[in-house]
Amino acid sequence: MNHFIPRAVLVALLLCPFPPVAAAGQDHGQAAAAVVEVPGARGDRDEKSYRKIFEGMEVFERNRPLAPGATLRFKVLPRRAGVSLQGLTMQLRGAHTRIAIPLDADLSFELPRDAAAAQDDAMVTSNRKAGSLTWRAEIRSPGTPAKTRRLGDLLLECKVGMVADLVAYVPSPVNLLITKLPDPCRTLSINMFYFTERPLFSIALMQGARRVILPAAQLHGPDAPMLTDLQDWYFLRDKAFMMQFKPLYEQGWQDDTLLQFDYMDDDPPGAAL
């Protein structure tokens, strides 16, 4: 069912960050602060509810056709300057749950499907202070070419992120309502934020012979300085881009549409090898 949003609300949404989801291979060299182990009290650490993430896993299972052959992973990125990811650790922790979570080199990870841990009110807990990290779902269909992402993969990341509470947004009654709707990713023209591996220059949508360059306004996020402390994409804005799935699918773009990325540091056409 479609949801009507007044024009004033739509304008507000354009300024609100609804990001999921980061691409693998982010450069973390710019973070130079020393690693600080945070005390274990709930609320002191940067963490997420496993119960909510478990619900997101169920969404992934129900929507597998959007990302054929893909697995569901998660990923963390630095949310602000001075956050070092060296020595980062993750643990699934509850009153009766203690499970270490291995991290890949790009800081992505899988989580077990553990109904008992969800009932235990367990948390996916890092050894970083609250507010240090940006969390995303990570879904990539096998065989996707380098420097591209599939539209269906990104849409499924949005669906999972909404349910799993991995979407950072400016607190407001409207934004809270949106996250509770059955399928806001497809039924509303909301901006979802994603990250690439390197600073972005442009993005092209490609499906067969059809090719369209995304507007520059969809790159690097809107300028809203008063909201920077609430936006989890601002520190990584040179790699950030916004997607609105509803209009794209209404225009006939399909799940297998590719987003092709051109990066700031790519060699110009015709450059000598």
Average pLDDT rating:
83
Profile the largest sheet. Answer: 4 strands, antiparallel
List SSEs in N-to-C order. HEEHEEEEHEEEHHHEEEEHE
Helix content: 10-25%
Spatial arrangement of strands, main beta sheet: 2-7-4-5
How widely separated are the two ends? 53 Å
**Model regions low in confidence, pLDDT < 50 over at least 5 residues:** 1-39
Estimate the global geometry from the Cα principal axes.
globular
Rg computed from alpha carbons, rounded to a whole number of angstroms = 18 Å
Question: Structural class, from helix and strand content?
Answer: alpha+beta
Question: What fraction of the residues are assigned to beta strands by DSSP?
Answer: 15-25%
Extended strand count: 14
How many H/I helices? Answer: 7
Our count of domains comes out at: 1
Keywords: Signal
Signal peptide: 1-23
